[in-house]
């Protein structure tokens, strides 16, 4: 049986490759940092955090022996150390045990950015190992993730469609299923020696692509709203600071220069030709889930910022609100005033910790669980201390119910894989 190890199998592109090769009869070993859901999908899995030093030793990759390898792992933004670990050290160790394969790189990596530099370094070690190197442009699919989700979000905005710069940058998207078929062909017929661009046959512009997505979603036409490149780069910087991928300076730089491939040389050698964007958009109708996802994608960071503001304000009040404003509510409890003041200040610190965790998007699942626990604890405590707060005309404790629902909604939107 044909056997393959897929690095980054839980990613947007990696999942499509894993499903395609499995359907084609390959024995797929799916590797990722989190593999629980891949295992539930029926894959044999290998848990591997490519940033961990253990994966930089060929001994770790014993399971790759006798298998080909597809490396679909990669980072868009990271420190140099993490870039090197994920793009160079771990793949180099895995290639040493595998029997050739394919690296999924990226088009447009001639730029002077950390992302481009480490992509080039990743290609260097793949070329030395005799792998076929593919440089896809914009990869789209029936589902979406990252940059393609952002495009859908922009397409779903009311009244206007924001574009970076003029909106005339050129794209020739390829469908993820078509890319997976190309990977399969390159496993059978390796093409080592130099990187190969791969994209779809249809050229469109950034504005045109967003308009096409808007039409696919069944939304009325909207006027393009150009965002000057300096402003877009500033927004990308905010995205970097607040960990709002795919809103980042790197993504803005890629969009600014367009994402066009020179795929003719490789496509001429392929049995299955990639489809144009107009063909795969017309292949299936947009569903309710597509419209919901597009509209919610840009609401998700807004929810996070609203929750961060809530906890920041609550924390500052807990730390600095004069004690005489809240001690009357606790007089009947019999506990010393000093203890209530200390609890208020500790609660303020806890609230500020949650605010900063939200601003940095630190471990969203844990942050969400802590928010639910703290709001629940506050609600129960104040129900005992001052049950009259439920009857205040402006809401009082009643507001905690929609806050809990808001936190739960944010947690659902943050769980992308």
Structural features, described:
The chain is of the alpha/beta class and 417 residues long. The protein has 16 helices and 13 strands. The protein starts with a strand and ends with a helix.
Structural class: alpha/beta
Rounded radius of gyration (Å) = 25 Å
Distance between the termini: 29 Å
- Number of E strands: 13
- As laid out across the biggest beta sheet, the strand order is 3-2-1-4-5-6-11
Largest sheet: 7 strands, parallel
| Overall average residue pLDDT | 94
Basic shape: globular
The quaternary organization reads as single chain
- Range of helix content: 40-55%
Helix run count: 16
> Could you name the ranges where pLDDT drops below 50 across 5 or more consecutive residues?
none
What order do the SSEs take from the amino end to the carboxyl end, as H and E?
EHEHEEHEHEEHEEEHEEHEHHHHHHHHH
- Proportion of β residues? 5-15%
Which characteristics define this entry?
417 residues, alpha/beta, seven-stranded parallel beta sheet, two-stranded parallel ribbon, 16 helices, 12% strand, globular
Summarize the structure.
With 417 residues, the chain is α/β, with parallel strands linked by helices.
Summarize the SSE layout with pairings.
Blueprint (H helix, E strand, L loop, with lengths): L2 E5 L4 H12 L3 E6 L3 H5 L3 E4 L20 E4 L8 H16 L5 E4 L9 H15 L3 E5 L2 E2 L6 H9 L4 E5 L5 E2 L2 E2 H13 L7 E3 L5 E2 H11 L6 E5 L1 H13 L7 H9 L6 H4 L9 H5 L6 H10 L1 H22 L16 H23 L4 H22 L14 H15 L3
Parallel strand pairs: 1-2, 1-4, 2-3, 4-5, 5-6, 6-11, 7-10, 8-13
Antiparallel strand pairs: 9-12
């Amino acid at each position: 049986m044909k056997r393959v190890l897929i690095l980054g199998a839980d990613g947007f592109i990696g999942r499509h490759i894993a499903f395609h090769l499995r359907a084609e009869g390959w024995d797929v070993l799916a590797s990722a940092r989190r593999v629980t859901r891949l295992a539930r999908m029926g894959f044999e899995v290998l848990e591997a955090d490519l940033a961990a030093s253990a994966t930089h030793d060929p001994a770790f990759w014993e399971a790759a022996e006798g298998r080909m390898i597809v490396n679909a792992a990669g980072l868009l933004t990271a420190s140099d150390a993490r870039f090197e670990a994920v793009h160079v050290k771990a793949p180099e160790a895995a290639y040493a045990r595998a029997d050739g394969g394919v690296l999924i790189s990226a088009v447009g990596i001639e730029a002077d950015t950390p992302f481009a530099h480490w992509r080039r370094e990743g290609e260097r070690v793949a070329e030395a190992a005799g792998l076929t190197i593919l440089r896809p442009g914009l990869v789209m699919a029936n589902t979406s993730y990252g940059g393609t989700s952002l495009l859908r979000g922009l397409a779903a905005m009311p009244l206007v469609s924001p574009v970076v710069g003029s909106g005339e940058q050129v794209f020739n998207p390829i469908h993820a299923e078509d890319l997976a078929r190309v990977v399969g062909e390159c496993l059978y017929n390796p093409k080592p020696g130099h990187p190969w661009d791969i994209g779809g046959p249809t050229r469109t512009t950034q504005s045109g692509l967003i308009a096409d997505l808007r039409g696919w979603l069944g939304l009325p036409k909207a006027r393009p709203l150009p965002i000057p490149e300096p402003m877009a780069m500033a927004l990308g910087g905010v995205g970097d600071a607040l960990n709002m991928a795919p809103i980042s300076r790197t993504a803005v730089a890629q969009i600014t220069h367009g994402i066009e491939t020179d795929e003719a040389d490789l496509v001429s050698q392929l049995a299955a030709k990639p489809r144009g964007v107009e063909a795969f958009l017309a292949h299936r109708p947009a569903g309710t889930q597509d419209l919901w996802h597009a509209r919610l994608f840009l609401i998700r960071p807004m929810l996070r910022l609203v929750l961060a503001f809530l906890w920041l304000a609550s924390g500052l009040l807990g730390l600095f609100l004069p004690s005489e404003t809240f001690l009357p509510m606790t007089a009947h409890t019999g506990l010393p005033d000093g203890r209530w003041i200390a609890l208020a200040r500790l609660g303020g610190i806890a609230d500020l910790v949650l605010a900063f965790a939200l601003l940095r998007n630190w471990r969203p699942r844990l942050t969400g669980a802590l928010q639910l626990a703290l709001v629940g604890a506050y609600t129960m405590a104040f129900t005992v201390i001052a049950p009259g707060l439920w009857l205040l005309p402006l809401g009082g404790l009643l507001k905690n119910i929609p806050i809990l629902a808001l936190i739960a909604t944010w947690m659902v939107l943050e769980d992308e894989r």
